[in-house]
Structures are given as structure tokens and as C-alpha cells.
Design goal:
The complex is a heterodimer of chains A (103) and B (482). With 103 residues, chain A is mainly alpha-helical. Chain A is built from three helices and two strands, in the order αααββ. The model of chain B has no long low-confidence stretch (mean pLDDT 96). Chain B has helices at 6-14, 20-38, 46-62, 103-110, 153-160, 177-182, 217-227, 271-286, 302-317, 336-347, 350-362, 368-388, 414-418, 425-429, 458-471, and strands at residues 41-44, 72-76, 114-119, 166-171, 186-189, 209-214, 257-261, 290-294, 394-398, 434-442, 445-452. Chain B has 15 helices and eleven strands. With 482 residues, chain B is of the alpha/beta class. In chain B, helix 9 (302-317) crosses helix 11. Chain B is globular, with a radius of gyration of 21 Å. The chains are: A mainly alpha (103), B alpha/beta (482). At the A-B interface, helix 1 and helix 2 of A face helix 9, helix 10, helix 11 and helix 12 of B.
Chain lengths: 103, 482
């Protein structure tokens, strides 16, 4: 398990997380609290890493359950490109064109 | 009348001693008088309530009434209500009017319950004090300077103050049980999958579960009778027989073995709360139960596991709030990216953003192994509970380490705030049912005890808790100022 640069949480790492979470920058107070909070959570995650788990499987559901909606199996996705493209009123170079909503 | 139990009020309604319209009107007047102080309700729906009350009176007159017909209740504001604002106590959903009812709402409506309004809560159910609400914190009726707990704090405050006779809540890591404990009420978190999540705004989908908050165990049983059951609209709803939860309430407790998990009674526990639990143990012994000390050593990691797993699911679930389809949208976006970023940053509060950041991190490629490790240790925890339930019928613990804390006391220290959930999160991680019920008072503040059972043992938990309430009167006490 890699520990990367997570022992210390830099401002650039926080900025990267914010960008991935689609959030803008935080206030100074929020940033200070969030950096210490994130660092503490990461430290907690590292602590449980040392627990012997006897090669158990990660929990996917608290109980044995069946998927009612579909088989619980990975399947290939069919290529629906042609079907979807036929539904579009206008296209340019194989791409949908949509109305401009933000000027 | 404001502090009647559902069972007594229902009897009065069926005997025509009072009408549902009269009861509902009295509740609405009480809400108008007290809600500005308590802030327990975000939305009040007087017109719909009175219309439902009139329909309930007609049903009662026709002789086809359900036990809940005409009973005024409130729904936590994360249950979708058709045509009625459902905010999740967030700026993000402050303008959201769902086009459909949650299954929980549909079922209680079908039983004839009268919805008075939507209860305050922590934003997106993330919090244990109700202080993360965009609409300001609800107050604890037992001490207005203290929190009512969370996240279902508004539901608990409304019932404790006599604004409603019961409420719905949701519990992801203790959000029904902890507010029930802080407000001297009964709160039941059913087995995961026992009550439908359809129409319940998602926070952490592998943990979220709906349940009742009420004044007595008997009332909670009546509410669960209506709430429980398979719902094909929820893919994780469980197809498991539904007993009449009131039928076994009076079964004797002789022969019962109650496990006392040693790890729940260590240094984190307030001494006086511990004394209340010791007294509860003596009462169960008098009722015929055997007491057995047990160990749940992996519960020490419960808080860490919970906040890693729940935050990961939170980051995933809350990805849908993008300012495009519904919810808050920032003003004058400069680009699509700007619209996403500013809508989310302005629409979510600090605690929600904090959890999204942790979740985003734990689901990232360089930290995903930690997420898998947390889920693996969760498997250990589930196995540990299963082993313990081979030797005992139920477990007894405090619901919280201490009574309700003061408003603002823990807001600058979220990790300290999370410790209030230390006895409840492990139960949620294992998907088990648990009930919190009053166990006494410390310094004038209510103390809760928690009974935990194996999956689908709600009837047994309600039976044991009801037995305790027949031998004690903590649950009959109401806040002095009201």
C-alpha cells in the first residue's frame, strides 16, 4: 500500500482535491481546519492498515443479498452509438449539437 | 394533550373524544408559538395538514381507521415530499420541490398519519448536533443552550417539545439514536434494508436507514409496522417477513441473555452516564435477564471506518449536485467549469465539503487501497458481531458517551464531535438494528441506552425495551419549560 505524500497535507494537495471534487478555494479559516482534518483522517486510515484481516474480502453489503434489478456480474456494454445518434436532431462531425445555455 | 402517546391519542380519536382536525390545529398553534425558539421545523404545511386531518376524521367516522389515522407527525427534511420543499437543510436544495413522495412518506400517508411539516436536520444528514443546518440549529427542549443531537435533531426536538406525536428520521451512523437519547425519546434504527430508502436523499447508501422517533417503545412499534417492508423501488430493500411489532411487546424477559460489551464502558464514557447504565442493567436483571460481559475489540476502529466509508459514499452521492439539473445554481457563471465549482462551493456548507474532500481522496487511485482496507476491517467487525450474537440475545450499551453538549461547543473540532457517535457507528457498519430509549438523567439532561440485536430482530428489541419502560418512568418525563 502506497503512502505517497499523504503524511503531510500540502496546500497543493488540498488544491488538487478541491479541483477533483469540483469545489473552489476555501476561506483561510476553512483551509486551516480542513487541512488538519484531512491529515487526521489520513493518519487514521494509515493506522487501520496495520490490522490483520486474514485475507478477508472487503464488505460490499452488510448481508447476503441478490441483485433484483440485474445479475451481479460484469458484462460488456453494447455499442449503442448508432441508436443514440439517430435520436439527435442535429450533429456536427459525429458530435451532438446542443443549444448554448451559458454565454 | 401535547405529550400524549400515539396509542392513547389514537384511542381518543376512535372514541370521538377529540377530532384529528382539533389535534392538528392544536399542534399547528403550538408550532407557531414554539418553533421560532426551537427551530425544529424548516417547513410547516398547515393547509395540507388540515386537509389530511379532515380526511382522517372521515376515515375514522367510516370505521376503517388505522392506528395512525389522524395522528400528527413530522418528516425529516431528507424524505422527498411531492410538491413540498425538501431541502436536506442545505442551501443546495433550498429550492427543491420533489415530483414524488418517498416510500416512507407514502406509507405513513396511506396509514392516515397527518404530516405537519418537514423537520430540521444536519445538512445532508452530516453531523451529530443539527448545527450544520443551513437554516440554523434546532434547540434541545430540555435545555435551549444545548444541541438536540443530529442529524435527525429537528425530528427529535419536535417530538420532545410536544409539537408532534412522532417523527421519521434517518440513521447513517447514529442519527436517529443519538438525538433520541439527547431528547429523552425512543429512536429505532432498523436493520439495513428493513425500511425503503426510495425517495430518501442519499448520503452514504450502504449505511442509510430510515426509522421512527417516538415517545414510547409502543409508539415506535406502531410506526415501524407502517414503515417496514420490501420496496422494489429500492434495490437494497430486503424481502424478509414483517411481524406485527406490537404483538410481542409484552412477552416476558425471563431467559433473556444481555451482552455488555466491555469496550463500550471504557474511559470515554461519562461516569454518571455509566451509573445510569448500571442501574438499567439491574432493572433488566430484576425482569429476569441474564447479564454476560462480552468483547467487541474492533469497535475501537469504528469511528475511522465509518468516516472513511461514509465519506467515500458521500463524495460519490453528492456528485450529482452540479448546478445543472436541479438545486442551487451560482449567479452569472463564466463557464461550465465555473458553474460546477461555484454552485457546489456556494451550495454546500463546510462540513459537507470536508466530507466530500475526504471521500474524494479515499476514492482516488493513490488512496483507494485504504478504502478497500476499511471495507475489509468492516467485514471483521460484522463477523465479530455475528460471533457475539451466538452467545447473547442482544447487547446493551450507552447510546452516547455523555448527555447533550452545548451549542457551538464542538463546531471547531469536528473530530471531537464525531466521538459522540462512538457507540452507534459500529452498529450501522454491521447493518444491525438498534434502539435507543431513555435510561435516566444527568444534571437534568436525558441519558439514552442502546439495545443492539442481530439482523431483523426489531420485534425482540422492541419487546425488551417495552419491558424496561413498563418498569421505569423516565420516558414519561417532559421538558419543564413546555
Amino acid at each position: 500500500m502506497t503512502e505517497t505524500a499523504l503524511n503531510t497535507l500540502s496546500s497543493s494537495h488540498l488544491a488538487d482535491l478541491l479541483a477533483r471534487a469540483k469545489l473552489t478555494t476555501l476561506s483561510e479559516d476553512e483551509e486551516a481546519l480542513d487541512k488538519s482534518y484531512l491529515a487526521a483522517m489520513i493518519a487514521s486510515a494509515m493506522r487501520i492498515d496495520s490490522i490483520a484481516d486474514d485475507h478477508l474480502q472487503p464488505t460490499t453489503h452488510a448481508f447476503e443479498v441478490e441483485q433484483r434489478m440485474r445479475d451481479d456480474a460484469v458484462t460488456d456494454t453494447e455499442d449503442h452509438r448508432e441508436i443514440y445518434q439517430r435520436l439527435m436532431p442535429t450533429m456536427v462531425h459525429g458530435l451532438y449539437t446542443v443549444p448554448v445555455v451559458i454565454e | 394533550m401535547s405529550f400524549q402517546t400515539i396509542s392513547r391519542l389514537s384511542k381518543a380519536l376512535r372514541e370521538k373524544a377529540i377530532s384529528s382536525v382539533e389535534v392538528t390545529q392544536a399542534c399547528l398553534e403550538r408550532i407557531e408559538q414554539l418553533n421560532p425558539t426551537l427551530n425544529s421545523l424548516i417547513t410547516v404545511t398547515p393547509d395540507q395538514a388540515l386537509e389530511a386531518a379532515r380526511a382522517a376524521d372521515e376515515q375514522i367516522a367510516s370505521g376503517s381507521a388505522h392506528i395512525l389515522t389522524g395522528i400528527p407527525i413530522v418528516h425529516k427534511d431528507n424524505f422527498c415530499t411531492q410538491g413540498i420543499k425538501t431541502t436536506c437543510a442545505s442551501k443546495m436544495l433550498s429550492n427543491f420541490i420533489p415530483p414524488y413522495d418517498a416510500t416512507v412518506v407514502t406509507k405513513l400517508k396511506a396509514a392516515g398519519a397527518v404530516m405537519l411539516g418537514k423537520a430540521n436536520m444536519d445538512e445532508f444528514a452530516m453531523g451529530g448536533s443539527n448545527e450544520t443546518s443551513y437554516y440554523g440549529p434546532a434547540k434541545n427542549p430540555w435545555d435551549l443552550a444545548r444541541v438536540p443531537g443530529g442529524s435527525s435533531g429537528g425530528s427529535a426536538a419536535a417530538v420532545a417539545a410536544g409539537l408532534a406525536f412522532g417523527a421519521t428520521g434517518t440513521d447513517t451512523g447514529g442519527s436517529i439514536r443519538q438525538p433520541a437519547a439527547f431528547c429523552n425519546l425512543v429512536g429505532l434504527k432498523p436493520t439495513y434494508g428493513r425500511v425503503s430508502r426510495y425517495g430518501m436523499v442519499a448520503f452514504a447508501s450502504s449505511l442509510d436507514q430510515a426509522g421512527p422517533i417516538a415517545r414510547t417503545v409502543e409508539d415506535a412499534a406502531y410506526l415501524l409496522n407502517s414503515l417496514a417492508g420490501l420496496d422494489l423501488s429500492d434495490s437494497t430493500s430486503m424481502d424478509h417477513g414483517i411481524p406485527d411489532y406490537t404483538a410481542t411487546l409484552n412477552n416476558p424477559l425471563t431467559g433473556l441473555t444481555i451482552g455488555i460489551p466491555a469496550e463500550f464502558f471504557e474511559e470515554d464514557l461519562n461516569t454518571e452516564v455509566g451509573q445510569c447504565l448500571e442501574e438499567a442493567i439491574r432493572i433488566y436483571q430484576r425482569l429476569g435477564a441474564h447479564i454476560k460481559k462480552v468483547h467487541l475489540k474492533h469497535t475501537a476502529n469504528g469511528i475511522t471506518l465509518y468516516y472513511l466509508i461514509a465519506s467515500a459514499e458521500c463524495a460519490s452521492n453528492l456528485g450529482r449536485y452540479d448546478g445543472i439539473r436541479y438545486g442551487y445554481r451560482c449567479a452569472s457563471p463564466k463557464s461550465l467549469e465555473d458553474l460546477y465549482n461555484r454552485s457546489r462551493s456556494e451550495g454546500f456548507g463546510p462540513e459537507v465539503k470536508r466530507r466530500i474532500l475526504v471521500g474524494t481522496h479515499i476514492l482516488s487511485a493513490d488512496a483507494y487501497a485504504y478504502y478497500l482496507k476499511a471495507q475489509t476491517v468492516r467485514t471483521l467487525l460484522i463477523q465479530e458481531f455475528a460471533q457475539v450474537f451466538e452467545t447473547v440475545d442482544v447487547l446493551l450499551s450507552p447510546t452516547t458517551p455523555a448527555p447533550a453538549f452545548k451549542l457551538g461547543e464542538k463546531m471547531d473540532d469536528p473530530l471531537n464531535m464525531y466521538l459522540a457517535d462512538i457507540y452507534t457507528v459500529t452498529v450501522s457498519l454491521a447493518g444491525l438494528p438498534a434502539i435507543s430509549l431513555p435510561a435516566g438523567f444527568v444534571g437534568g439532561l436525558p441519558v439514552g441506552q442502546q439495545l443492539i440485536g442481530p439482523a431483523f430482530s426489531e420485534a425482540r428489541l422492541l419487546n425488551i425495551a417495552h419491558g424496561y419502560q413498563q418498569a421505569t418512568d423516565w420516558h414519561t418525563r417532559v421538558p419543564g419549560v413546555f
